[in-house]
Design brief:
The structure holds three protein chains of three kinds.
Chain A lengths: L7 H17 L9 H7 L1 H11 L4 H10 L4 H13 L16 E6 L25 H4 L23 H6 L30 H10 L2 H12 L7 E15 L8 E15 L12 E8 L3 H13 L16 H7 L2 H9 L6 H22 L5
Chain B lengths: L18 H16 L5 E2 L13 H10 L5 E6 L6 H13 L3 E2 L8 E5 L12 E5 L13 H9 L4 H14 L10 E3 L3 E3 L9 H4 L5 E6 L4 E5 L5 E3 L26 E5 L6 E5 L2 H9 L10
Parallel strand pairs in B: 2-3, 2-4, 4-5, 5-8
Antiparallel strand pairs in B: 1-9, 6-7, 6-10, 8-9, 11-12
Helix pairs in contact in B: 1-2
Chain C lengths: L21 E10 L2 E11 L4 E5 L6 H8 L7 E7 L5 E3 L5 H10 L1 E4 L3 H4 L6 H11 L5 H14 L16 H13 L5 E5 L7 H18 L2 E6 L2 H7 L2 E6 L2 E7 H6 L4 H12 L1
Parallel strand pairs in C: 3-8, 3-9, 6-7, 7-8
Antiparallel strand pairs in C: 1-2, 1-4, 4-5, 9-10
Helix pairs in contact in C: 4-5, 4-6, 5-6, 6-7
Classes of the chains: A alpha+beta, B alpha/beta, C alpha/beta.
Chain lengths: ~375, ~290, ~270
């Protein structure tokens, strides 16, 4: 009569087969190739690389395919794979001032050295569903690409223009701070240094950072931001092989960078000056970089002597809840059986109800 | 009952993690054993199973398991629940170690939510999967403050919670993850085992290791360490009792799961520890629902 | 003034053999370039109530936080004589020891009772917390003592299992006092204890406080901007202005014959009001 919850093995195997079938969909429809995902769902690949912490378009495209387009699942797949990768070398810091920019805009100056370059952006498109895409239309060639990579000469940073006048805080590394922490090798501890916070935010969930950043704009920890500069393009990656002793270029990657310029009224010790918030992401992930920059600035509240009252200014709150691999796993673990704990609760509630009813009985002995 | 080792997955290190990571985790384990009940932060890795599904326990097991070990994995006391199967399979594939469902045969037991009914023996290691390692978390959300409270043994607030339970409900209303004090010093979360299992932790001859992957903490109870469940002198700690016995094996001393038989209120109770129940039935014990 | 007013004005022989309970020596606190308090020195004897008066921003609360071990002074020392007769330098001791003092031999009453109470648990749990922190493990005895103290601060015993959120402001403040006094501290720090209350309930609280201080022979340091509170409770006063003590002495003496122009201004503005 009692049928035990047996057969976990077979249930899992069957579930895996059903998943594979659902992933493939109708076999009459051509299967997606990784190239197609990489090229035509490029921004999905960019997000998976950024939050998955691995710059590899092919692996990210595979993750997107395997996850059936569920990007948080794809990020998880890439992170789990990352665990098994050996660390061969540490690159030199990338120099984004030397980026071959494909997009570069500033909201703080009308024109500036290096110019404004719109590049491939959704901005100023009218968000009208384009039915010609559904029909598989071709693309008109761009005559003189307005966003063609500039010469590999440096495009000066907006922040450095302000810095020459002392109008913005310096962003030199604090020599007293010691070597930068590494979130993938050391556990997060509090209070976390800015470099660790930035690592956390760079891997953090775009939706979470977007909402937090938005909340600062609506008054929960207002920081008076201006988009000082947003740039996107290719930067060179260099390492210093120990046997050579000088940097060699091993390739290039696409980055999106955002430097926010925020108002700062000054304090008793500091004259009024603009402050910075910084965001960086792999590929074209401009919204993520902007959100990150706003949250970075908010998390500096204590350092700048501001009263920290809003969620976005609370380091423990933001950093402990930003990672979607952690959050998604823990949320979904509620699907696992909890019947032992539930049984403990059942026994307890029954006993307490029994006690309560006994106490409510008329006390006539 | 032990199943022989299976071929190992190509392209991955023994037990998935690379040796540097295992060494890092073993260092954390040694520190945890040296300071019983203290939560040691460690650089938890992303594993191919989701956070919250046992990644802490898996990383601990992966770091201590050797080719000669025999592994048992249980979830809710059972070897055949899907998550237990999934984790046991993971180690069978990545480490090729022998697995078993028999508690006495296992050298390493990874568990979620239960301690086996069969008493553990010297030489065995039990690895608990821990979702929230911080016993003070529900009273104080901030990590910086809870670490300070542990450091200063500033634990008055734990008894405030127990006091409040008794004042409002007439009894301590915590049924699982019931806080304990280890070796008279650190207050520790035993993971969400029912409080029924708490006494098994006290002075156990086995080594008890706790891994919280998402929260990046490891802690431990060395063999023969006193573990006391928090209580009051006049409201002593007590475990759950059932008026029924196991319907299959007739055991009256085990933790029972309630199984709903129909929509007319039909219930039966069976051992949550499937190995214990099977062992008793093999020895000839039967319960009243065991059928023919 | 009660007979218990064993006042010890610095430099004046009190005639008491007891050594001082609390000694502040040159206590100074800076916030960056901004001054909190500067070069404050005094001695407090067992059973003595010291009032610190001044307008807001004069450094009273900074000084109180330094004295009670919650804020580390930039300069100067605070020493305390424990029940065991040992003299300890508060800031050279580890935090664990400081916290132990704070929850056993000291009490700290905050201006806003919400800062000093656990609003999520019952009145009984609030009063019992210090007993449990000190190792109390008998529910029945903790509860009985909590009930006694509830009545002592004039709250009905049947409110023992109610949360402070259901209490009025005056009741919350009295509950905070019970929570602090249940372990019989020797020294209580109070920051504007009547500051958040309506004038109508202030008098009752002051009366209660005066009775408890006398009954248990408490020493206290009370920060207040209200000279009426100071006159009623304090044996001795220190007047602070811009972080420094400008005048000190017996309460009646300071209030009836103020010497410093700032004290004169304070006293006259109260009289005019």
């Amino acid at each position: 009569m009692y049928v035990a919850v047996k057969g976990g093995e077979r249930a899992i195997d069957n579930a895996h087969r059903l998943l594979a079938e659902a992933r493939r969909g109708d076999p009459a429809t051509p299967e997606l190739s990784l190239d197609q995902i990489d090229q035509q769902l490029a921004l999905a690949v960019d997000r998976v690389m950024t939050e998955g912490s691995v710059y590899d378009r092919e692996l990210a495209a595979l993750a997107v395919k395997q996850a059936r387009g569920d990007l948080i699942e794809a990020i998880f797949l890439l992170r789990a794979y990352r665990t098994t990768l050996p660390r061969l070398a540490v690159t030199c810091p990338v120099d984004t001032a030397r980026m071959s920019v494909r997009r570069r805009i500033s909201a703080t100056f009308k024109d500036l050295p290096g110019g404004q370059v719109l590049g491939p952006t959704f901005d100023y498109t009218h968000r009208l569903l384009d039915f010609s895409l559904a029909a598989g239309g071709g693309v008109e060639p761009v005559d003189t690409p307005p966003g063609a990579p500039t010469a590999p000469t440096a495009t000066p940073k907006v922040a450095s223009l302000l810095a020459s006048e002392g109008l913005i805080e310096a962003d030199d590394a604090d020599p007293a701070a010691g070597p930068a922490g590494d979130l993938t090798r050391q556990p997060l501890t509090f209070p976390a240094g800015r470099e660790v916070r930035l690592q956390n935010l760079a891997r953090g969930d775009e939706g979470f950072l977007l909402s937090l950043a938005y909340s600062t704009q609506r008054g929960y920890g207002r920081s008076h931001p201006f988009a000082g500069e947003i740039r996107m393009g290719e930067v060179a990656i260099e390492i210093v092989p120990p046997e050579l002793g000088f940097p060699v270029e091993i390739g290039e990657i696409t980055l999106s960078e955002c430097e926010m310029v925020n108002q700062f009224k000054g304090s008793r010790t500091e004259p009024p000056q603009f402050t910075r918030g910084y965001g960086l992401s792999f590929g074209e992930a401009e919204r993520k970089a902007m959100a990150m920059a706003l949250v970075d600035r908010s998390l500096r509240a204590a350092e700048l002597g501001e009263e920290a009252t809003a969620p976005a200014q609370d380091g423990e709150f933001v950093l402990m809840h930003s990672d979607n691999v952690e959050a998604s796993g823990f949320l979904q673990h509620l699907k696992l059986p909890h019947y032992v704990d539930f049984q403990a609760e059942l026994v307890m509630v029954r006993q307490m109800r029994h006690d309560a009813m006994a106490a409510a009985e008329p006390g006539d002995g | 009952m032990a199943e022989a080792a299976t071929p190992v997955l190509d392209g991955y290190n023994f037990a998935y993690l690379d040796e540097q990571t295992k060494r890092m985790i073993r260092r954390a384990l040694l520190k945890a054993i040296a300071v019983p009940g203290y939560q040691v932060p460690f650089a938890s890795r992303e594993m191919p199973l989701p956070f919250g599904w046992g990644t802490g326990g898996i990383q601990v097991t992966a770091s201590i398991i050797g080719r000669d070990d025999t592994l048992k994995v249980i979830d809710q006391g059972a070897d055949d629940t899907t998550n237990a199967v999934s984790i046991r399979r993971f180690f069978a594939r990545t480490a090729g170690v022998a697995t078993t469902t028999r508690t006495p045969e296992a050298t390493v037991i990874q568990t979620r939510h239960r301690i086996p009914e069969t008493p553990l023996a010297a030489g065995q290691i039990i690895v608990y999967q821990v979702p929230i390692p911080e016993p003070l978390r529900w009273l104080e959300a901030r990590e910086t403050e809870t670490r300070r409270m542990h450091g200063l043994a500033d634990y008055g607030v734990m008894h405030v919670k127990l006091y409040e339970d008794i004042a409002q409900h007439g009894r301590i209303a915590t049924g699982y993850d019931y806080p304990v004090q280890v070796a008279g010093r650190y207050i520790m979360a035993p993971s969400p085992i029912p409080k029924f299992d708490n006494p098994k932790m006290d002075r156990s001859p086995a080594l008890q290791l706790f891994g919280a992957g998402r929260e990046k903490r490891i802690y431990a109870i060395p063999p023969h360490t006193p573990v006391k469940s928090l209580d009051f002198e006049d409201h002593p700690f007590a475990v759950e009792r059932w008026t029924r016995r196991c319907g299959l094996c007739g055991a009256g001393d085990s933790y029972l799961d309630e199984v709903v038989l129909d929509d007319a209120g039909g219930r039966m109770f069976v051992c949550s520890d499937t190995d214990y129940c099977a062992g008793r039935r093999a020895d000839g014990h039967t319960g009243e629902d065991a059928g023919e | 003034m009660t007979e218990a007013a064993a006042c010890g004005i610095d430099g004046v022989d009190t005639g008491l053999a007891d050594p001082p309970l609390l000694v502040a020596d040159g206590v100074t606190r800076w916030y960056g370039h901004r001054l909190g308090c500067r070069d404050v020195s005094f001695r407090l004897w067992p059973g003595e109530v010291l009032g610190i008066v001044g307008e807001s921003g004069s450094g009273k609360t900074t000084l109180l936080d330094c004295l009670s071990g919650r804020l580390t002074p930039s300069d100067g020392t605070v020493t305390y004589r424990t029940a065991g007769g040992e003299t300890v330098d508060i800031f050279s001791r580890p935090e664990a020891e400081r916290r132990l003092l704070q929850r056993t031999e000291w009490g700290i009453v905050r201006q806003n009772p919400r800062d000093g109470l656990r609003m999520g648990v019952s009145a009984g749990a609030n009063i019992g917390e210090r007993l449990m922190a000190a190792g109390g493990r008998h529910y029945g005895r903790i509860r009985a003592l909590a009930g006694e103290w509830l009545e002592r601060v004039e709250i009905d015993h049947d409110r023992l299992d109610d949360r402070p959120t259901t209490f009025s402001g005056g009741m919350q403040q009295r509950l905070q006092i019970a929570r602090n006094l249940v372990t019989h501290p020797r020294l209580v720090f109070m920051d504007e204890p009547t500051g958040s209350l309506d004038v109508s309930v202030q008098a009752r609280l002051l009366d209660l406080l005066r009775g408890l201080v006398a009954r248990f022979g408490l020493a206290a340091v009370i920060v207040t901007h209200d000279l009426a509170v100071a006159r009623l409770l304090a044996h001795r006063l220190m007047v602070m202005q811009q972080g420094a003590v400008v005048e000190s002495g017996l309460t009646d003496q300071v209030l009836d014959d103020p010497q410093h122009p700032y004290t004169q201004l304070l006293v006259s503005s109260v009289l005019q009001a």
